[in-house]
Amino acid sequence: MQNIVAGNWKMNLNKSEALGLVNQLNILLKENPIQCELVICPPFPWIALLAAELENSPIQLGAQNCAAQVSGAFTGEVSASMLASAGVSYVIIGHSERRALFGDTDAVILEKCKRALEANLNVILCCGESLAERDAGEAIHVVYSQLKAVLDHCKEFNADNLVIAYEPVWAIGTGRTASPEQAAEIHDAIRSYLNQHFGEQTGNAIRLQYGGSCNASNAAGLFAKSNINGGLIGGASLKAEDFLSIARAC
Ligand code: PGA
Fold first, then answer.
1. Which structural domain, as residue segments, surrounds residue 19?
2. Would you call 36 exposed, middle or buried from its count of C-beta atoms within 10 A (0-12, 13-18, 19+)?
3. CATH number of the domain that 108 lies in?
4. Would you say residue 247 lies in a domain?
5. Total structural domains within the chain
6. Fewest Cβ atoms nearer than 10 Å: which of 7, 34, 54, 160?
7. How far apart are CA 183 and CA 143, in angstroms?
8. Catalytic residue among 97, 129, 167, 187
9. Domain-embedded: residue 243
10. Residue 246: inside a domain, yes or no?
11. Is the CB of residue 218 below 6 angstroms from any atom belonging to ligand 1?
């Protein structure tokens, strides 16, 4: 299995900053190639621009979201097929910021996943519990129900088009990372869920990313756990050196 590290730029970086970061990543990767799969997920306006910059680069392009609808009168939305035609190969769906701030319910997330697969995009499906849910001992239950809401109704997923990102909400952007043991406990539970759902061959081949304040100093400890196959990186993906040192730890 090839590990996968993805950078979620969120709503950061203007045009020249975005170009500058990609330029720097390309230079550093040429000097010192890496083994794991690398994806960057910039804001929508830079996607077509960066697709051109990434033509001869090992970095793949991802998007942070896509519409739940196919096409039509949906002002402000961006469809999965538009993203695919612009050179995108991954889309993050179900990020906790989308769930909490933009009304992405399990039902909406399911529709977005279907649109992504119809457009031949690979999905990075996010799940994770809040602090209150963790304190109540509900973490695994919450993650299972988020996964079940999508996987039970979307039969087209397989080990090639699905990555699961476990992102505890209390660790996102807070500087408070899950310990490798805390993360591994949930990753192991996700792996057994996937094995039951897909059968062992597919279940064991689906890559599981950890996300939430992952940085150059804590990445190696997290990635040492057998069911942590990469990371979804927010803040630390905005600096080329930091992002690549996380990828090297993978
Ligand atoms: P963070 O964000 O690395 O800044 O905590 C991770 C994410 O939200 O994907």
1. 8-67+77-238
2. buried
3. 3.20.20.70
4. no
5. 1
6. 160
7. 12
8. 167
9. no
10. no
11. no
Backbone φ and ψ for 135, nearest 5 degrees, come out as: -60, -30
Residue 83 counted as domain residue: yes
pLDDT in tens, 96-117: 999 999 999 999 999 999 999 9
Instruction: Clarify whether 95 is annotated catalytic.
Output: yes
Among 97, 210, 233, 245, the mutation site with the greatest number of ligand 1 atoms within 8 A of its Cβ is: 233
Please provide the average confidence, as pLDDT, over all residues in the chain: 97
Segment 219-228, tens digit of pLDDT: 999 999 999 9
Rounded to whole angstroms, the Cα distance separating 230 from 209 reads 5
Determine the Cα–Cα distance for residues 169 and 193; give it in Å rounded to an integer.
Answer: 20
10 Å Cβ neighbour count for 141? 13
DSSP 55-113: TTSSPEEEES---SSSSSS-TT---HHHHHHTT--EEEES-HHHHHHS---HHHHHHHH
CA 95/CA 141 separation, integer angstroms: 18
pLDDT value of residue 30:
96
Give this prediction's pTM. 0.98
